[in-house]
Amino acid sequence: MKDSVTTTDSSLTISLSEKLTFEDHTNFRELLKLINNDIHRNCSIDLRGLEAIDSAGLGMLMIAFETAEKFGMSFNLYKPVGQVKRLLEISDFEKVMSIVS
Amino acid sequence: MTDIANQTYQETESQTLNGLTPETSESTPFSEIPQEEISEKLGVEGQFQPSADVLKEVMENASDPELAHEFLNKWLGLSETQQKAMSIIINEIELVSELVETNVSDISHKFQELAKHSQNQSDQVSKLADAAQNVIYQGKSMDLSQIMNTIDGHLTSMIDKIVESSKHGVEVVYALDDVTKDVVKVENLIGEIEAINKQTNMLALNARIEAARAGTAGDGFAVVAHEVQELAKTINELAWTMREEVTSVVNGVRLGNTKIKEVANVDLTDNILVKDTIRELMDCILNQNNIYSDALHSSKETSQDITKDIYSVITRLQFQDRAKQRLENIVSTLQVMEESVTSFSTETRSTFETSLTGRTNEEDWFKAVIKDLTLGEMRGRFLKAVFGEEDAFTEETENTVPQSSSTDFEYDDDSIELF
Prior knowledge:
Strand order of the largest sheet of chain B: 1-2
Radius of gyration of chain A: 12 Å
Helix content of chain B: over 70%
Strand content of chain A: 35-45%
Radius of gyration of chain B: 63 Å
Number of domains of chain A: 1
Order of helices and strands of chain B: HHHHEEHHHHHHHH
CATH architecture of chain A: 2-Layer Sandwich
Helix content of chain A: 25-40%
CATH superfamily of chain A: STAS domain
Oligomer: heterodimer
Largest sheet of chain B: 2 strands, antiparallel
């Protein structure tokens, strides 16, 4: 997994690319620390560049959502594509969190 | 056949009237003989009225009484033959009526059975169509869409649990990572305790050395230094024990962390994607089932149409009642005619007593009558009724039946009898 983070005064955007699997759990925890604060009001995870995800990756996205929710941040997954989009649809993620198509 | 029959009839009439009109052409039918000619031959004027008084008058006033007598005798013979012919025609009509009634009744019965079978078939197809749409599961009827929704619900629940398990797996890994880090801190703290204890032990050793140098005055201090040294030794043992225990905990945590990572690392995306596969398969089953259902419904409607058509045919078969009534009316009319002819013959015979025998040879006329009868068995009954026997005459008449007549029927006599 590769990531890049952009911030504005109120928004945090984390862009992920390549693959998000269990192997990335340590790096992903560093990204969770960015959410785990009271600085930003909005958090968006940009999935346009993410090509694939496994079940642990889905679990990590769910942890990111719950972390943001815990701190009262609005949260969304931004434009998932391909296999990532299909897995999010089958798993009914849109019933839990906002997914921007 | 009609032309042949007419021709035969004309020839027969000509032969019958030969005595009356010897000079008339053989091909001239009776109906075409002028009334004046008949009146002239009979010696009477005006329209011929065959009543007893008129016949008597004819006999009395005829210019040629012998000729009139012969004509009257022939006419009486013809009348007797016609009585017999009408009688057998009445019998034949009654026979036909009974035959039609029996067969139409049989046909109607068969059609009713057919309608029942068709209705049963329609009901069975209807049940089959319903069964194709519904499945009995745990005593409850469920249609396929409900089954699909149930399966979809179970799959969704399973996928929720997979995602939830994956999330917890990662959270446990994070927690164990934290524990591992904390345990390392504890190990470090134990190391610090050991270092402090080592310094304490060194200090106690130095204190004992200094106490020994001080002599007797240092004895008390030496005891304290010894106690401190023993305390440091005890602390060192305790620290060692703690290190062993912590090391054991660390090993357990690290093993647990490794195992949970192995579990969390299992990719369950294929299990999630199974939902897609099952949904596609169910769509195929549903689609195929719809095709079967449509075919079964169509078959059911066709069966219902057939049943309706059969009942319509049964209704139409009731024409037989009307036909029977008409035949009964015809029979009644023929009976009246037969009675009239019989009455007239009796009256004529009574009027002229024994001078008229009525026994004339009407075989030619009767041959013409039965010539076109295509059923040999029917022809036999006619001959038996008129002449009291059938075989000899049957052979003769069969030979005289024109071969072409069979071509005018859809079925020839043998075919009908076989049928």
